[in-house]
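Discussion board: Methods & Data

I've been asked by a reviewer to show the raw model output for two of the constructs in my manuscript, not just the figures. I'm not sure how much to include, so I'm pasting the format here to get opinions. Each protein appears as its amino acid sequence followed by a line of C-alpha coordinates. Is this the kind of thing reviewers expect to see in a supplement, or should I convert it first? Here is construct A:
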Amino acid sequence: MEETIKSILKYIGEDSEREGLLETPKRVIKSWEEIFSGYKDDVSSIFKDFENDGYDQLVMLKGIEMYSICEHHMLPFFGKASIAYIPNKRIIGISKLARLLNIYCRRLQIQERIGLQIVQAIEKNLDPKGAACIIEAEHLCMKMRGANKQNSTMITSSLSRVFKEDSQKGSASRNELMHFLYKV
Protein backbone atom coordinates (compact mmCIF):
# COMPACT_ATOMS: atom_id res chain seq x y z
CA MET A 1 0.00 0.00 0.00
CA GLU A 2 2.86 2.38 0.76
CA GLU A 3 4.13 2.02 -2.81
CA THR A 4 0.66 2.83 -4.14
CA ILE A 5 0.58 6.04 -2.12
CA LYS A 6 4.06 6.94 -3.37
CA SER A 7 2.75 6.42 -6.91
CA ILE A 8 -0.15 8.76 -6.18
CA LEU A 9 2.29 11.40 -4.90
CA LYS A 10 4.31 11.04 -8.07
CA TYR A 11 1.15 11.26 -10.21
CA ILE A 12 0.15 14.61 -8.68
CA GLY A 13 3.67 15.97 -9.28
CA GLU A 14 5.31 15.45 -5.89
CA ASP A 15 8.61 13.89 -4.94
CA SER A 16 7.82 11.09 -2.49
CA GLU A 17 11.46 11.19 -1.33
CA ARG A 18 11.17 14.82 -0.21
CA GLU A 19 11.79 15.12 3.55
CA GLY A 20 8.26 16.28 4.37
CA LEU A 21 6.73 13.35 2.48
CA LEU A 22 8.93 10.46 3.67
CA GLU A 23 6.46 9.34 6.34
CA THR A 24 3.33 10.34 4.40
CA PRO A 25 2.50 6.85 3.06
CA LYS A 26 2.52 5.40 6.60
CA ARG A 27 0.47 8.32 7.93
CA VAL A 28 -2.11 7.94 5.14
CA ILE A 29 -2.50 4.22 5.83
CA LYS A 30 -2.92 4.87 9.56
CA SER A 31 -5.50 7.61 8.93
CA TRP A 32 -7.44 5.40 6.50
CA GLU A 33 -7.66 2.67 9.14
CA GLU A 34 -9.53 5.13 11.36
CA ILE A 35 -11.50 6.97 8.66
CA PHE A 36 -12.78 3.73 7.11
CA SER A 37 -13.18 1.72 10.32
CA GLY A 38 -16.92 1.38 9.70
CA TYR A 39 -16.31 -1.58 7.42
CA LYS A 40 -15.05 -3.60 10.39
CA ASP A 41 -17.85 -2.73 12.82
CA ASP A 42 -20.91 -4.93 13.36
CA VAL A 43 -24.04 -2.77 13.43
CA SER A 44 -26.16 -5.25 15.40
CA SER A 45 -23.56 -5.35 18.22
CA ILE A 46 -24.42 -1.79 19.31
CA PHE A 47 -28.12 -2.53 19.79
CA LYS A 48 -28.10 -3.45 23.48
CA ASP A 49 -31.73 -2.66 24.12
CA PHE A 50 -33.95 -2.24 27.17
CA GLU A 51 -37.64 -2.36 28.03
CA ASN A 52 -39.24 1.00 27.34
CA ASP A 53 -41.32 0.90 30.55
CA GLY A 54 -44.30 2.15 28.59
CA TYR A 55 -42.51 5.11 27.01
CA ASP A 56 -43.87 5.53 23.50
CA GLN A 57 -42.99 9.11 22.55
CA LEU A 58 -40.27 10.63 20.39
CA VAL A 59 -36.64 9.82 21.19
CA MET A 60 -34.20 12.06 19.32
CA LEU A 61 -30.49 12.77 19.35
CA LYS A 62 -30.09 16.08 17.54
CA GLY A 63 -27.06 17.79 16.02
CA ILE A 64 -24.62 14.87 16.01
CA GLU A 65 -21.40 15.96 14.32
CA MET A 66 -20.50 13.73 11.41
CA TYR A 67 -18.08 13.39 8.55
CA SER A 68 -17.71 10.90 5.77
CA ILE A 69 -15.93 10.44 2.46
CA CYS A 70 -17.85 10.79 -0.80
CA GLU A 71 -17.59 7.61 -2.84
CA HIS A 72 -17.65 9.56 -6.11
CA HIS A 73 -14.60 11.79 -5.60
CA MET A 74 -13.13 10.47 -2.33
CA LEU A 75 -13.47 13.94 -0.81
CA PRO A 76 -14.89 14.66 2.65
CA PHE A 77 -18.37 15.81 3.48
CA PHE A 78 -19.33 16.90 6.97
CA GLY A 79 -22.18 18.31 8.97
CA LYS A 80 -24.75 17.27 11.52
CA ALA A 81 -27.27 14.48 11.74
CA SER A 82 -30.37 14.05 13.86
CA ILE A 83 -31.63 10.55 14.53
CA ALA A 84 -35.06 9.81 16.00
CA TYR A 85 -37.39 6.92 16.67
CA ILE A 86 -40.62 6.18 18.50
CA PRO A 87 -40.22 3.05 20.61
CA ASN A 88 -42.55 0.13 20.29
CA LYS A 89 -41.37 -2.03 23.20
CA ARG A 90 -37.61 -1.52 23.33
CA ILE A 91 -35.22 1.45 23.61
CA ILE A 92 -31.44 1.79 23.32
CA GLY A 93 -28.94 4.02 25.08
CA ILE A 94 -28.77 7.38 23.34
CA SER A 95 -25.00 7.11 22.70
CA LYS A 96 -25.76 4.10 20.50
CA LEU A 97 -27.42 6.41 17.97
CA ALA A 98 -24.18 8.38 17.64
CA ARG A 99 -22.20 5.14 17.34
CA LEU A 100 -24.58 3.92 14.64
CA LEU A 101 -23.97 7.13 12.69
CA ASN A 102 -20.19 6.68 13.04
CA ILE A 103 -20.30 3.14 11.69
CA TYR A 104 -22.04 4.17 8.48
CA CYS A 105 -20.12 7.43 8.06
CA ARG A 106 -16.76 5.68 8.30
CA ARG A 107 -17.16 4.10 4.88
CA LEU A 108 -17.11 5.43 1.35
CA GLN A 109 -20.60 6.86 1.19
CA ILE A 110 -23.26 9.08 -0.24
CA GLN A 111 -25.31 11.16 2.17
CA GLU A 112 -28.63 9.66 1.10
CA ARG A 113 -27.43 6.13 1.85
CA ILE A 114 -26.22 6.98 5.36
CA GLY A 115 -29.70 8.11 6.44
CA LEU A 116 -31.35 5.12 4.82
CA GLN A 117 -28.93 2.65 6.44
CA ILE A 118 -29.48 4.20 9.87
CA VAL A 119 -33.27 4.02 9.57
CA GLN A 120 -33.09 0.43 8.28
CA ALA A 121 -30.78 -0.61 11.16
CA ILE A 122 -33.13 0.92 13.74
CA GLU A 123 -36.12 -0.75 12.06
CA LYS A 124 -34.40 -4.15 11.98
CA ASN A 125 -32.99 -4.10 15.51
CA LEU A 126 -35.65 -2.23 17.52
CA ASP A 127 -38.90 -2.62 15.55
CA PRO A 128 -39.99 0.93 16.47
CA LYS A 129 -43.22 2.66 15.49
CA GLY A 130 -41.03 4.76 13.20
CA ALA A 131 -37.47 5.95 12.64
CA ALA A 132 -35.93 9.03 11.07
CA CYS A 133 -32.53 10.42 10.12
CA ILE A 134 -32.09 13.98 8.87
CA ILE A 135 -28.61 15.02 7.69
CA GLU A 136 -27.36 18.49 6.78
CA ALA A 137 -23.89 18.43 5.28
CA GLU A 138 -21.38 20.39 3.25
CA HIS A 139 -19.57 18.51 0.50
CA LEU A 140 -16.03 19.42 -0.48
CA CYS A 141 -16.68 17.94 -3.95
CA MET A 142 -19.10 20.89 -4.38
CA LYS A 143 -16.77 23.46 -2.82
CA MET A 144 -13.29 22.49 -4.06
CA ARG A 145 -14.04 21.34 -7.59
CA GLY A 146 -16.82 21.06 -10.13
CA ALA A 147 -19.60 23.50 -9.25
CA ASN A 148 -17.41 25.46 -6.78
CA LYS A 149 -20.41 26.50 -4.68
CA GLN A 150 -19.05 27.64 -1.32
CA ASN A 151 -22.29 28.15 0.59
CA SER A 152 -24.20 25.04 -0.41
CA THR A 153 -25.62 22.62 2.14
CA MET A 154 -27.29 19.33 1.27
CA ILE A 155 -30.22 18.18 3.40
CA THR A 156 -31.53 14.63 3.24
CA SER A 157 -34.25 12.87 5.18
CA SER A 158 -34.90 9.19 5.63
CA LEU A 159 -38.20 8.39 7.31
CA SER A 160 -40.15 5.25 8.09
CA ARG A 161 -43.56 4.23 9.37
CA VAL A 162 -45.28 6.93 11.48
CA PHE A 163 -42.84 9.60 10.30
CA LYS A 164 -43.61 8.78 6.68
CA GLU A 165 -47.35 8.06 6.94
CA ASP A 166 -49.65 10.69 5.55
CA SER A 167 -46.71 12.83 4.51
CA GLN A 168 -49.12 14.89 2.40
CA LYS A 169 -51.26 15.76 5.41
CA GLY A 170 -48.49 15.67 7.97
CA SER A 171 -48.80 13.06 10.70
CA ALA A 172 -48.60 14.14 14.33
CA SER A 173 -45.31 12.24 14.75
CA ARG A 174 -43.82 13.85 11.66
CA ASN A 175 -44.95 17.30 12.82
CA GLU A 176 -43.38 16.76 16.24
CA LEU A 177 -40.13 15.61 14.61
CA MET A 178 -40.01 18.72 12.41
CA HIS A 179 -40.86 20.97 15.35
CA PHE A 180 -37.91 19.71 17.39
CA LEU A 181 -35.58 19.75 14.39
CA TYR A 182 -36.38 23.22 13.15
CA LYS A 183 -38.46 24.87 15.88
CA VAL A 184 -41.26 25.64 13.38
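Construct B, same format:
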Amino acid sequence: MRTMLPLLLSLVFTSSVFGEELKVYAAAAVKAPLLELAAEYEAATGHKVTCVFDTAGATAQRFHDDSGATLLITTQALISEAEKTGRLTNGMTHRLADTVGGFAVPPGSARPDISTPEKLKAALLSARRIAFSDPARGATVGTHFMKVIESLGIKDEVLKKATLAPDGVETMRLVLQDKVDLGVTQVSEVVQANPDALLGTFPAQFDLATTFSLWYPSTSSAAAKNFVTLVTGPGGRAKLTKDGLRPPIQR
Protein backbone atom coordinates (compact mmCIF):
# COMPACT_ATOMS: atom_id res chain seq x y z
CA MET A 1 0.00 0.00 0.00
CA ARG A 2 2.84 2.44 0.81
CA THR A 3 4.23 2.27 -2.74
CA MET A 4 0.81 3.11 -4.18
CA LEU A 5 0.10 6.04 -1.84
CA PRO A 6 1.34 8.82 -4.18
CA LEU A 7 -0.82 7.50 -7.02
CA LEU A 8 -3.86 7.16 -4.78
CA LEU A 9 -3.40 10.70 -3.48
CA SER A 10 -3.16 12.02 -7.03
CA LEU A 11 -6.41 10.26 -7.88
CA VAL A 12 -8.12 12.09 -5.03
CA PHE A 13 -7.19 15.48 -6.47
CA THR A 14 -7.85 14.64 -10.13
CA SER A 15 -11.27 13.13 -9.51
CA SER A 16 -13.88 15.85 -10.02
CA VAL A 17 -17.01 14.07 -8.78
CA PHE A 18 -17.26 12.29 -5.45
CA GLY A 19 -19.66 9.49 -4.76
CA GLU A 20 -19.74 8.10 -8.31
CA GLU A 21 -20.45 4.39 -8.66
CA LEU A 22 -18.28 2.39 -11.05
CA LYS A 23 -19.62 -0.99 -12.14
CA VAL A 24 -16.89 -3.38 -13.25
CA TYR A 25 -17.61 -6.70 -14.95
CA ALA A 26 -14.58 -8.96 -14.64
CA ALA A 27 -13.51 -12.54 -15.23
CA ALA A 28 -13.03 -14.46 -11.98
CA ALA A 29 -9.34 -14.96 -12.81
CA VAL A 30 -8.61 -11.44 -11.51
CA LYS A 31 -11.00 -11.46 -8.55
CA ALA A 32 -8.61 -11.19 -5.58
CA PRO A 33 -6.34 -8.39 -6.89
CA LEU A 34 -9.26 -6.43 -8.37
CA LEU A 35 -11.20 -6.45 -5.10
CA GLU A 36 -8.09 -5.26 -3.27
CA LEU A 37 -7.54 -2.45 -5.78
CA ALA A 38 -11.21 -1.48 -5.64
CA ALA A 39 -11.10 -1.23 -1.84
CA GLU A 40 -8.00 0.98 -1.98
CA TYR A 41 -9.56 3.22 -4.62
CA GLU A 42 -12.79 3.59 -2.65
CA ALA A 43 -10.89 4.52 0.51
CA ALA A 44 -8.79 7.10 -1.33
CA THR A 45 -11.47 8.76 -3.45
CA GLY A 46 -14.90 8.24 -1.92
CA HIS A 47 -16.17 6.59 -5.10
CA LYS A 48 -17.90 3.22 -5.07
CA VAL A 49 -16.57 0.31 -7.14
CA THR A 50 -18.96 -2.60 -7.64
CA CYS A 51 -17.29 -5.70 -9.09
CA VAL A 52 -19.30 -8.46 -10.78
CA PHE A 53 -17.36 -11.67 -11.45
CA ASP A 54 -18.17 -14.57 -13.78
CA THR A 55 -16.61 -16.70 -16.48
CA ALA A 56 -14.87 -14.78 -19.26
CA GLY A 57 -17.73 -15.33 -21.72
CA ALA A 58 -20.54 -14.62 -19.25
CA THR A 59 -18.71 -11.51 -18.02
CA ALA A 60 -18.56 -10.09 -21.54
CA GLN A 61 -22.24 -10.84 -22.16
CA ARG A 62 -23.36 -9.28 -18.88
CA PHE A 63 -21.31 -6.16 -19.62
CA HIS A 64 -22.98 -5.82 -23.03
CA ASP A 65 -26.43 -6.23 -21.44
CA ASP A 66 -25.90 -3.59 -18.73
CA SER A 67 -26.24 -0.02 -19.96
CA GLY A 68 -24.79 1.18 -16.65
CA ALA A 69 -21.59 -0.87 -16.91
CA THR A 70 -18.33 1.05 -16.59
CA LEU A 71 -15.40 -1.30 -17.25
CA LEU A 72 -14.92 -4.77 -18.71
CA ILE A 73 -12.13 -7.21 -17.88
CA THR A 74 -12.20 -10.39 -19.93
CA THR A 75 -10.04 -12.22 -22.45
CA GLN A 76 -8.33 -10.23 -25.16
CA ALA A 77 -9.81 -12.65 -27.71
CA LEU A 78 -13.37 -11.80 -26.66
CA ILE A 79 -12.66 -8.07 -26.66
CA SER A 80 -11.08 -8.23 -30.12
CA GLU A 81 -14.04 -10.20 -31.48
CA ALA A 82 -16.53 -7.73 -29.98
CA GLU A 83 -14.65 -4.84 -31.54
CA LYS A 84 -14.72 -6.55 -34.95
CA THR A 85 -18.47 -7.14 -34.76
CA GLY A 86 -19.19 -3.66 -33.43
CA ARG A 87 -20.43 -4.73 -29.99
CA LEU A 88 -17.61 -2.70 -28.48
CA THR A 89 -16.92 0.67 -30.09
CA ASN A 90 -15.04 3.86 -29.31
CA GLY A 91 -13.10 2.39 -26.44
CA MET A 92 -9.63 1.83 -25.08
CA THR A 93 -8.00 -1.52 -24.32
CA HIS A 94 -5.19 -2.31 -21.88
CA ARG A 95 -3.61 -5.75 -21.81
CA LEU A 96 -3.45 -6.64 -18.11
CA ALA A 97 -1.92 -10.06 -17.63
CA ASP A 98 -1.65 -13.64 -18.80
CA THR A 99 -2.68 -16.73 -16.91
CA VAL A 100 -2.48 -20.43 -17.67
CA GLY A 101 -4.88 -23.29 -17.19
CA GLY A 102 -4.07 -25.86 -14.56
CA PHE A 103 -5.23 -28.33 -11.95
CA ALA A 104 -5.96 -28.17 -8.25
CA VAL A 105 -6.29 -30.80 -5.53
CA PRO A 106 -7.46 -30.52 -1.92
CA PRO A 107 -4.44 -29.48 0.20
CA GLY A 108 -2.87 -32.49 1.88
CA SER A 109 -4.36 -35.00 -0.55
CA ALA A 110 -2.57 -37.22 -3.07
CA ARG A 111 -0.84 -35.32 -5.85
CA PRO A 112 -0.94 -37.32 -9.11
CA ASP A 113 1.64 -36.77 -11.84
CA ILE A 114 0.13 -34.80 -14.75
CA SER A 115 3.37 -33.89 -16.51
CA THR A 116 2.64 -35.77 -19.77
CA PRO A 117 -0.55 -36.51 -21.71
CA GLU A 118 -0.33 -40.17 -20.71
CA LYS A 119 0.08 -39.36 -17.02
CA LEU A 120 -2.68 -36.75 -17.16
CA LYS A 121 -4.98 -39.34 -18.73
CA ALA A 122 -4.22 -41.80 -15.95
CA ALA A 123 -4.83 -39.14 -13.29
CA LEU A 124 -8.17 -38.17 -14.79
CA LEU A 125 -9.30 -41.77 -15.05
CA SER A 126 -8.32 -42.56 -11.46
CA ALA A 127 -9.93 -39.46 -9.95
CA ARG A 128 -13.35 -40.20 -8.46
CA ARG A 129 -14.69 -36.65 -8.74
CA ILE A 130 -13.66 -33.81 -11.07
CA ALA A 131 -14.87 -30.22 -11.30
CA PHE A 132 -14.41 -27.65 -14.04
CA SER A 133 -16.21 -24.52 -15.18
CA ASP A 134 -19.14 -24.97 -17.54
CA PRO A 135 -18.11 -24.39 -21.18
CA ALA A 136 -21.71 -23.42 -21.97
CA ARG A 137 -21.23 -20.36 -19.74
CA GLY A 138 -18.17 -19.20 -21.64
CA ALA A 139 -15.53 -20.73 -19.37
CA THR A 140 -12.14 -20.49 -21.10
CA VAL A 141 -10.49 -23.38 -19.25
CA GLY A 142 -13.67 -25.46 -19.28
CA THR A 143 -13.87 -25.18 -23.06
CA HIS A 144 -10.21 -26.11 -23.37
CA PHE A 145 -10.56 -29.04 -20.97
CA MET A 146 -13.37 -30.52 -23.08
CA LYS A 147 -11.02 -30.50 -26.08
CA VAL A 148 -8.25 -32.12 -24.02
CA ILE A 149 -10.34 -35.03 -22.73
CA GLU A 150 -11.72 -35.58 -26.21
CA SER A 151 -8.17 -35.65 -27.59
CA LEU A 152 -7.20 -38.16 -24.88
CA GLY A 153 -10.17 -40.34 -25.77
CA ILE A 154 -11.70 -40.22 -22.28
CA LYS A 155 -14.45 -37.64 -22.68
CA ASP A 156 -17.33 -39.95 -21.72
CA GLU A 157 -15.53 -41.42 -18.70
CA VAL A 158 -14.60 -37.99 -17.34
CA LEU A 159 -18.01 -36.40 -17.86
CA LYS A 160 -19.71 -39.21 -15.94
CA LYS A 161 -17.95 -38.10 -12.76
CA ALA A 162 -17.65 -34.39 -13.47
CA THR A 163 -19.33 -31.44 -11.81
CA LEU A 164 -19.82 -28.41 -14.05
CA ALA A 165 -19.23 -25.35 -11.87
CA PRO A 166 -20.56 -21.88 -12.73
CA ASP A 167 -17.01 -20.46 -12.68
CA GLY A 168 -13.49 -21.02 -11.39
CA VAL A 169 -14.30 -19.59 -7.96
CA GLU A 170 -16.93 -22.28 -7.46
CA THR A 171 -14.55 -24.92 -8.83
CA MET A 172 -12.05 -23.97 -6.14
CA ARG A 173 -14.72 -23.99 -3.44
CA LEU A 174 -15.47 -27.61 -4.33
CA VAL A 175 -11.75 -28.45 -4.24
CA LEU A 176 -11.09 -26.79 -0.89
CA GLN A 177 -14.17 -28.39 0.67
CA ASP A 178 -12.84 -31.77 -0.48
CA LYS A 179 -15.91 -32.40 -2.60
CA VAL A 180 -13.83 -33.24 -5.68
CA ASP A 181 -10.44 -34.87 -6.18
CA LEU A 182 -9.38 -32.66 -9.09
CA GLY A 183 -10.35 -29.13 -10.10
CA VAL A 184 -9.58 -27.62 -13.49
CA THR A 185 -9.35 -23.83 -13.73
CA GLN A 186 -7.02 -20.87 -14.20
CA VAL A 187 -3.83 -21.10 -12.12
CA SER A 188 -4.50 -17.58 -10.86
CA GLU A 189 -7.83 -18.74 -9.42
CA VAL A 190 -6.09 -21.63 -7.65
CA VAL A 191 -3.40 -19.37 -6.18
CA GLN A 192 -5.95 -16.79 -5.05
CA ALA A 193 -8.02 -19.48 -3.31
CA ASN A 194 -5.15 -21.44 -1.73
CA PRO A 195 -1.63 -21.80 -3.20
CA ASP A 196 -1.25 -25.18 -1.49
CA ALA A 197 -3.99 -26.55 -3.74
CA LEU A 198 -2.04 -25.98 -6.96
CA LEU A 199 -1.13 -29.27 -8.63
CA GLY A 200 0.32 -27.94 -11.87
CA THR A 201 -0.41 -26.79 -15.40
CA PHE A 202 -1.50 -28.78 -18.43
CA PRO A 203 1.25 -30.80 -20.11
CA ALA A 204 3.15 -28.78 -22.70
CA GLN A 205 1.17 -30.34 -25.55
CA PHE A 206 -2.06 -28.96 -24.06
CA ASP A 207 -0.73 -25.68 -22.67
CA LEU A 208 -3.35 -22.95 -22.34
CA ALA A 209 -2.25 -19.34 -21.92
CA THR A 210 -4.91 -16.63 -21.85
CA THR A 211 -4.45 -12.88 -22.02
CA PHE A 212 -6.88 -10.81 -19.97
CA SER A 213 -7.49 -7.20 -20.91
CA LEU A 214 -9.40 -4.19 -19.61
CA TRP A 215 -11.73 -2.28 -21.93
CA TYR A 216 -13.53 0.99 -21.24
CA PRO A 217 -15.37 3.59 -23.36
CA SER A 218 -13.29 6.62 -24.38
CA THR A 219 -16.13 8.78 -22.99
CA SER A 220 -15.71 7.35 -19.47
CA SER A 221 -15.71 9.73 -16.52
CA ALA A 222 -12.56 10.95 -14.79
CA ALA A 223 -13.35 8.63 -11.88
CA ALA A 224 -13.45 5.60 -14.20
CA LYS A 225 -10.25 6.60 -15.99
CA ASN A 226 -8.49 7.12 -12.66
CA PHE A 227 -9.45 3.62 -11.59
CA VAL A 228 -8.07 2.30 -14.88
CA THR A 229 -4.82 4.15 -14.12
CA LEU A 230 -4.64 2.44 -10.75
CA VAL A 231 -5.32 -1.05 -12.13
CA THR A 232 -2.95 -0.76 -15.09
CA GLY A 233 -0.15 1.03 -13.25
CA PRO A 234 2.90 -0.61 -11.64
CA GLY A 235 1.18 -1.16 -8.31
CA GLY A 236 -1.86 -2.77 -9.90
CA ARG A 237 0.25 -5.03 -12.07
CA ALA A 238 2.29 -6.05 -9.03
CA LYS A 239 -0.91 -7.18 -7.31
CA LEU A 240 -1.90 -9.19 -10.39
CA THR A 241 1.49 -10.92 -10.38
CA LYS A 242 1.25 -11.66 -6.66
CA ASP A 243 -2.06 -13.39 -7.24
CA GLY A 244 -0.88 -15.82 -9.89
CA LEU A 245 -1.00 -13.82 -13.12
CA ARG A 246 2.01 -12.85 -15.21
CA PRO A 247 2.88 -9.89 -17.45
CA PRO A 248 1.19 -10.29 -20.85
CA ILE A 249 3.18 -11.61 -23.76
CA GLN A 250 2.54 -9.72 -26.97
CA ARG A 251 1.20 -12.19 -29.54
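Answer (T.O., handling editor elsewhere):
This is acceptable in a supplement if you add a one-line summary per construct. For B, something like: The chain has a mean pLDDT of 92.
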